[in-house]
Write a structure and sequence with these properties.
single chain, 281 residues, alpha/beta, Rossmann fold, Alpha/beta hydrolase, hydrolase, AB_hydrolase_fold, hydrolase activity
Length: 281
């Protein structure tokens, strides 16, 4: 992660947007959140998921520190996809949102988020579906693909190749945040990251353990993904490495840029439109 660099300054753009109260345009969605449904995962951990729309199923997984409501529902992305004739299924990852937030290390073995993803697919009986995610959700999507998931189409958002093949760097940044809460200078990237944690009511004890679940995916495994893949990220987002590099590696990768950086792209309607257009076509 940046430390006083120009890139760091760029990443700060848009953070006030995501930390401020919602704009009037999405106020109704924010005031009427989709009620969660629940399942028990492979180890009995209770997981939440949210649904919107009817039609072909697509599973969209949120990013780290976030939840389905913040990542997909609040700013209209799920609504845009549902309008194309989709049943949008949005889980809250273990340790996030309305899902259980256990504090024991045993609940966070390597690749547990991948296994939770398969538990959701099995619970819903999905056989013909699309799959995608943002940031950690994109990484979880790739881990599922690497372990046999077979969606028709894939969306990888807020993700570059480095974020898939070398998870330690990104994980180390968040571990430093979670183990030093309350110590960062106001206005710094670290302070803003902590502020975002507070806006999503994140549980530091659970979230620091989520970092232990990260598993690197070899470059050759990523290159072997044959489905049509939309790689869509903020034009200033290199938090997980350059998204165009990832799209170029994929045999059927398509890169699209939307305004903003890693965090601010989430509030842009262009993100939902790009995902909806890709899936709808």
């Amino acid at each position: 992660m940046p430390n006083g660099s120009t890139r760091g300054i760029c990443l700060l753009r848009g953070w006030p947007i995501i930390l401020r109260p919602l704009t009037a345009g999405w106020k109704s969605l924010a005031n009427s959140p989709i009620e969660p449904r629940f399942l028990d995962s492979f180890d009995g951990t209770r997981l939440a998921y949210h649904e919107l729309g009817e039609g072909r199923p697509v599973v969209l997984i949120h990013g780290y520190f976030s939840n389905a409501q913040t990542n997909w529902i609040r700013y209209g992305h799920a609504e845009a996809v549902a309008a194309k004739g989709f049943r949008v299924i949005m889980p809250d990852l273990r340790g996030h949102g309305d899902s259980a937030r256990p504090h024991d290390d045993a609940s966070y073995p390597p690749d547990v988020l991948m296994r939770d993803g398969f538990a959701l697919i099995e619970h819903l009986g999905l056989t013909d579906y699309d799959l995608g995610g943002y940031s950690l959700g994109a990484r979880t999507t790739v881990r599922m693909l690497a372990n046999g998931a077979s969606p028709k189409r894939v969306v990888l958002s807020g993700m570059g190749l480095r974020g898939l093949t070398d998870t330690e760097g990104r994980g180390g940044y968040f571990r430093r945040i979670l183990t030093n809460l309350g110590t960062f200078e106001r206005g710094t990237l670290e302070w803003l990251t902590e502020a975002f944690l507070k806006t999503t009511s994140g549980d530091p004890e659970a979230l620091v353990r989520v970092l232990d679940t990260f598993v690197d995916t070899p470059r050759e495994t990523v290159a072997a993904i044959t489905q049509p893949v939309l790689v869509v990220s903020g034009e200033e987002d290199e938090d997980n490495g350059p998204a165009p590099e990832l799209a170029e590696l994929l045999p059927n990768g398509l890169y699209r840029a939307v305004p903003g950086g890693h965090m601010s792209a989430v509030v842009k309607p262009e993100l939902g439109r790009e995902i909806a257009d890709f899936l709808g076509n």
